[in-house]
Structure formats: C-alpha cells, structure tokens
Amino acid sequence: MGLENWFAAVVKNRRTLGLVALIATFAGVALIVDRPEGSVSGWAAFPLLVGGGGIFVWAVWPSSTASDIASQSLASRFLTRLTLGGRLVGLFPAFGVAIILADLTYNTLLSATPALQTEDTIVLLGAMALLGYRLVPNRFARERDFVLLFFFWLNAILVVPLLVARLYFVDFERSVDLYSWIALAPEASAVLNILGVSNQLHPVTGSTAPGLTFTPQQMVSQVTLVITTACSGIYSFGIFSAAFVAFVMIEFQRFSRRTWLLLALGLSSSYAANVLRMVVIVLVGYYTDTVQTDLQNMLVAHSYAGWLIFLGWISLFWTIAFRWLAERPISDKASGPPTKRGANCGICSKALSPVLPGQRCECGKFYHVACASAVDVCPACHHLMGAPGKVVGARLDGSS
Fold first, then answer.
1. How many whole angstroms separate alpha carbon 327 and alpha carbon 347?
2. What's the mean per-residue pLDDT of the chain?
3. What is the pLDDT of residues 151-164, one digit of tens each?
4. Torsions phi, psi for 38 (to 5 deg)
5. Closest CA to 376 of 365, 389, 385, 363
6. Burial grade of 103 (CB within 10 A; 0-12, 13-18, 19 or more)
7. Considering Cα of 176, then 157, then 258, then 354, what sign does the dihedral take?
8. 168 HSE (CA, 13 A, CB side)
9. What does the DSSP 8-state code read for residue 395?
C-alpha cells in the first residue's frame, strides 16, 4: 500500500486514530506521574505525550470553525458568548489537553501529593467534556451542552474558589477543609446555639478540619465532632447546584422572575439541607447518646441522616419545581374550565413520555410532536409551530 493510500485510510478512520492517540497520551501522562525508577519505559513518556496529544488534536480538529451551538436557549446564548460567537469551539480539544496537563503539573510541582483528589477528578472530567464536545452529533446538542455546562459550573462552584483561596493565602497545599471552616461549621454551630445546644468551634490538633465540641445531656465528658469536607455534604451541594443551573439554562430561553426565584430557592435550600444534616447529627448525639451507647446513635445518624435528608429534600424540591414551572392551564370554552396539566400536551392534554415524544414552544408550552404537526400555530402564544428543535417563527398577529 502506497503512502497516499495509507494517508487516505488514516483520514477515513480519523476517529479511531483519535481514540488510539488519546490512549497513548494518557499512557505518557501515567509514565510521568508514576515515574518508574530503573526502567527504560520512562523515556517513552515524552514522545507518547507529545505525539499522542498532537495526533489526537488533529483527529478531532473540526474541518471548519463554524459554531455548532444553537441560538435560542439561555445555554446556547451563554456558550455563544463564552466561545466568542463559536469561534473557540474548534479549540475545545486543545483546551481539554491543556487543562489535563495543567492539573497534573500542579499536582506534581505544587501539591503536597501527586495523587488525584476529588477536585482533580472534577477538573479532569471537565476536560474530557471539552475533548468529546465536537464528537457528539448535533442531534444531541442539548444533552451535549448540558454536560459541558454541568462541569463548567461544578468547577466554578467547587474548584475555582479553592484555587482563589490558595492564591490569597499563598498556600498551594491548603486543605479542602477550608470549605468546612467557611461554609458549614460556623453556620451549624450558630443554629445549634439558637436551639439551646451549647457548643464551641475550634481547630483540632493533627487535622485541618474544624472541630465542634459539645456535651451530650446524658454524658459528663465532652464530645468533639470533626467536620471534614468529605463529610460536610459540600460535594452534594455542588453537584446539585451545577446540575440545576445547567438544567435551567438548557430548558429556558430567558430568565423570568419565576425562574430567578426558583434558582435562588434551589441553591439556598440545597445549602440549608447540608447545614440541617450537620445539626441533626449533633442533636441525635446530644439528646440520645449515653455512656452505654458510646456515641453509636450519633454515628448512625452520621451514616444515614445525610442521605435521607438530601433524598427527601431533592424529591420534594423537584416535585414543586416541575409543577411550578409547568405551563399554565389553557382556557377552552368548549370543554369548560381549565384543568391542571403538569407535564402534559397543551393540545390533547395527554402526558408526555419517551413513548410519546414532545417538543417545546419558545413560550414554554409543551406539545406532542404529532399534535404540534397538526396545528399551524401555538394555541398559547400564536407563534408558528416548527419542527422539533427548529426555531419557531413570528406571531401571526404581528406582535413581538
């Protein structure tokens, strides 16, 4: 096979080559991180990293810099501005590789340990979202943008503040327990004092996390609860917040007073649920533990209270959110007074489901695809009904 045929085969199997190059790149990264002593394999790290990374960028580099981003939802408008009108989308693979290398370099040179921590995982997953963005077909654009926005906001909530704090204190080894010192322990201590549970917040010898000391009612000795970041619930707060903001941006075309209020309610109630979890743990130990139980009740609450509170709260919140954000009932003189619909079709009033797919008008109303195709205009806002995923036209009555 001649050189031209080899090149044609490579171009034809560009994505396969990109996958192989990505594996080679991470093999080079692994050799740099592990630094095998007394082995010649260490010499392969640099060519694997540079060669594999270069081939991967070529493999996924778009043939044009035109933006794949739609122009209707809050998410698409945000991404359009963030990428300078879509011109930076073509550089996403390069940004992803750069973020991975920056994180590994930070761990190797500045961190106390090169081991990957939770924040490193969040950064690397965000980089992977950038690497794979252009590989996702346009018919999955909403899902693709949701994943990208989710990791964008997750890094903005959990990683960026920690880096800013480390720069501010000029301490690149400062523990993630800084979150507990600022965003959880003082608030939980204040609530407990209001409830009549006397406590003190203080540093703990041998730990970077804050300690909350109190004396259970049926015990003489004091008890110190060390509130580490891993147990604080800050990660569940970050995951929910990032997913919720991404959901709002994907689902809505503009912020109304209702969406702003729901967004504020979601973030504040998620944070309050974390504080409540810590308060409940201490209250269980304060009121129920004795010398005989030896704090077992508090340990049980520590293991299960957080999940029960979070699952109960998130179920209630999403139930309220979906009912609140559902379209308002449409009056129909022929059928009598309007009825509550929830996530139902605005034409036939039957439920939307994966079996009966739907589409959404820019005014926020939902319709089955079949129902929408049978009418000319949206019954609610009188915009022209377009095909699923298409932009609807202007109002027929001439208003904007």
1. 12
2. 76
3. 999 999 888 988 88
4. 70, 20
5. 385
6. buried
7. negative
8. 7
9. B
